[in-house]
Structures
1.
Amino acid sequence: MSDGPIIKADKDFTKEVDKHLPEAQELAESNVQAAVEKLLALEKQTRQASDLASTSRVIVGIVTICKEAGDWNLLNEQVLLLSKKHGQLKQATTKMVQVVMGFLDEAPNMENKMATIETLRTVTEGKIFVEVERARVTRILSNIKKEQGDIAAAADILCELQVETFGSMSRREKTEFILEQVSLCIQKGDWTQAGILSRKISTRYLSRKPKKTPEQLEKDQKEREEKERKRTADEAPPEPEDDVTDLKLRYYEQQITLAKHEDKYLEACKHWRQVLDTEAVEENPDQLRTALQRVIYFIILAPHDNEQSDLLHRIHRDARNTQIPEDAALLKLFTVPELMRWPMVAEQFGPHLCQSDVFDASEGASDPKAYKRWQDFRKRVIEHNVRVVAKYYTRIQTPRLTQLLDLDENETEKYISELVTAKTIYAKIDRPARIVSFAKPRDADDVLNEWSGNMKSLLGLLERVDHLITKEEMMARIQPTKVSRTPTA
């Protein structure tokens, strides 16, 4: 097949096609094979003369005659034959494939439809100029497998496409293909592949765009029209101004599912914040409250570190939290260095939290992940309390610490050890004396540095006091003295 540039037609066969095409269609009513052979002879002439328009009309006429006659085997045979013709024009093949794709919905049964799909996949394999058509046919095949309940086969078929490399496919269609691939991988249970595929989507494309003025929209429209005039057949059409809200919500829904499966709570919180930064969500009160709640839930569940603490306080300052007062009250408890007793927290907030799909306090829950998140929530409350105790105490007896944390000694030691390992706090446990020390040991250099700093501060204060005393003395000297006059007799 010719992959070179389009050359000028040697001869125009428009009149011949106008004459022979209706004759062949009339002949097909009695003899389909004879009609096809008549058009094949004409197709050879138009192809050798490089007459693209006429060749496209003839080969489309051939496949249409086969389809109208109901001979799907002949249709598949002619599609294969025409695509392999020596010097066949690329655009003519593309047109034929597109027309045959339109016939798929009219197939009399699934067997004929599957045979035609496989024929189209064979014809388009390895050909860049029909890569988009191959992707669309493959997606149709994948959807058929999905409807039949074979998720694994549907995922394998669709994931073989590397649509991000297709230059002639629009960005929106590429994103839809990748989202479908990720969805099938999630249903299949292939979480690793789903994560890899989802990274092919640019979040910048899905990010919220500032609203443009009518002048900017008009200017962009003119630029797209200019690009459309100059683009070649193999280039993708210029991207129109498109609302990608539906793609954005689908993408972050998948990302939240992946993050929840891997217990990456901080990532889930960030994804919910992106959902929150969507105009459609902001304008829907129910969706807005749901997003605000999920942002709070997942930032609380995230392990404590500098990033989590910073994000926690920024979320706390969001004025929209007034719409969810109970969740905002829970969030506030994590922002102040005060103890919050777990029995009180479970009693006050537990019923409200378990109404959502995020938490479930019963061990035999239908969603094991929801019960695990409830246990992680309890863990975050205890860790917060340990950090508060470490802030206010240098040494504390173990019985008193267990009383403050509402734990037994083994659990207390476990949580302290985990926070020490994570370098969140410093602690030493003296088991025989039953004392926990939170004071960091200091070597000689630290003591000397502190002493030096204290001395420097002291000398600075003395110098300041001396300066103020001198200033007061000078002010006293320059003040005028009052002369007393005694009255004369």
2.
Amino acid sequence: MPLQFELCPGRMIGADHPCFIIAEIGQNHQGDLAIAKKMIRMAKDCGADCAKFQKSELECKFNKKALERPYNSPHAWGKTYGEHKRHLEFTHDQYRELKKYAQEVGIYFTASGMDEMAVEFLHELGVPFFKVGSGDTNNFPYLKKTSEKGRPMVISSGMQSMETMRRVYNLVKSSNTNFCILQCTSAYPLLPEDVNLRIITEYQKLFPDIPIGYSGHETGTTITVAAVAMGAKVVERHVTLDKTWKGSDHQASLEPNEFVELVRSIRLVEKAMGSSVKRLLPCEVACHNKLGKSVVAKTRIPAGSVLTLNMLTVKVAEPRGFPPEEIFDLEGKTVKREIAEDESVTEEAIENYNTRTKC
């Protein structure tokens, strides 16, 4: 059984607990605090467990030349990449306001710390868990410092090799047992042939003592629901209020009507996963009573006859007789009384018949 742990106060993940659903707002708020709050409310109304943002301390994440690089993308919010990122970056006070709003709404709040200074701030802010974006999963100094903070961690694995993920597992495990790994492919939007859901199964084999999840950038909801059916215990999807808005993530995001359908489908699939014990269920009794078959006499069987298979057949019959799966057990048994042609073969007609224990 995969490890279970408390990801957020009062919310366990792993084992048989419900899948934890993260609404990745990221920077789809367009740098507007009011839109960010509207998206937090949307995430709550759609049934998400957590609203997540992305926090950077830009001078720690980028060098000067990267920030000064001209940015001519149609998605640009400034003439340079630095201007673009500054437009989308909320201040510390704004993050405190967003966290307070999320508490009022009743949804967990966190952010991906996109550099070590951002992690320090989020730690001070008191987020329930750290999300490690794929771009920092092989940033081992960052990963080590973050794991040593003692908060639970959710680690995406986009752009990484399996060997790197083994090293990530060992590094984090040495100081923090409360973490999970998400299968992820870093492409926006993601084509189905690049999703590789089978890696979820491989992670479950390689890391059996931690929950495994899925972070998706594909269009639609079907693939994410399939990931849950394969055992993903945490899922993360980008959300937006409008896919036509400026910004490179919107196209790979889910609008409210899609996200609410995703949550509904995940909860439905979780119900359908049910039990691994195969048995006749109470809901099947009516069908079984109507259509369930019994062993009947193919021909008249005189009292004292030793049964052979050519004397028997299987039909829907009244009254109910031996179930079909016991027909081979009847071979060689002696009948105590005559059984008429087409009559059900019942226990009281068989000499010294010991009914097998049913499980």
